[in-house]
Design a protein that fits this description.
7-stranded mixed sheet, 7 strands
Length: 232
């Protein structure tokens, strides 16, 4: 197996993008009151990460095309994201967008906002939206693998991405980039970590004394990826 020195696992909503697009979809199509009620349940501990992902979409009855078009229009990529993907591409470092969001809207956002030459280097590991008359439901393709790795709360656990990079590609150093509650598993499994300044993940890392680099734009992360040298 060929050994790859470096790879990046990056969160999507609120990290690669300025807004949490999943939340925006829920508010727009399902109503802000529904989103707020489900968010409150999550903060009270009544829902785990997988549960809140399912709950925010239960009032969404729009079609896949409508949801994807809205997402692409609402999204803005975080400054430096394109440069980060380019830095990975230029040094042949795998780049995984690991997300608790839905594959369909992530693809739509990238198709509108990221050049195709860079999109081709991005692998998406996310949940699957199931669109139908009964409303938007969510499938969790990596859940069984996550359970094997010790997590059954994230839905799309980012430690699956980290494990696959190491086991299948022999990656020596995984850079994790994130912002939210669901990025705790990434914080615990990546070799180095970037946490969006002021985010839940930033506070979590500070509280638990986990080494991390705060960011507001992704330009410093892109520069670090371009320059990082990994010991054999």
């Amino acid at each position: 197996m060929r050994t790859i020195p470096l790879a990046v696992v990056c969160d999507f909503d609120g990290t690669a993008t300025l807004l949490d697009i999943g939340d925006e979809i829920s508010k727009h199509f399902g109503g802000a009151a529904h989103w707020e009620a489900q968010s409150a349940r999550f903060h009270r501990g009544e829902l785990d990460t997988r549960g809140i992902i399912e709950a925010i979409y239960t009032n969404v009855f729009a079609s896949e095309a409508e949801v994807c078009d809205f997402a692409a229009g609402a999204a803005r990529l975080r400054p430096g994201f394109a440069e980060l993907v380019r830095a990975c591409k230029e040094r042949d470092a795998p780049f995984i967008l690991a997300s608790g969001g839905l594959r369909q809207y992530i693809e739509a956002v990238l198709a509108r906002h990221l050049p195709e030459t860079l999109r081709a280097h991005v692998r998406i590991m996310a949940n699957e939206g199931l669109f139908g008359e009964g409303g938007l439901r969510v499938a969790f393709p990596t859940r069984s693998r996550a359970v094997e790795l010790g997590c059954d709360s994230c839905g799309s656990c980012k430690r699956v991405a980290v494990a696959e990079l190491r086991e299948e590609l022999g990656v020596r150093h995984v850079v994790g980039i994130g912002d939210g509650f669901a990025d705790r598993c990434l914080a615990r499994s990546a070799d180095s970590l970037w946490a969006r300044e002021g985010s839940y993940l930033h506070r979590y890392c500070a509280l638990h004394h986990l080494p991390h680099t705060p960011f507001t734009t992704l330009l410093p992360a892109a520069e670090a990826v371009a320059e990082l040298r990994v010991e054999p």
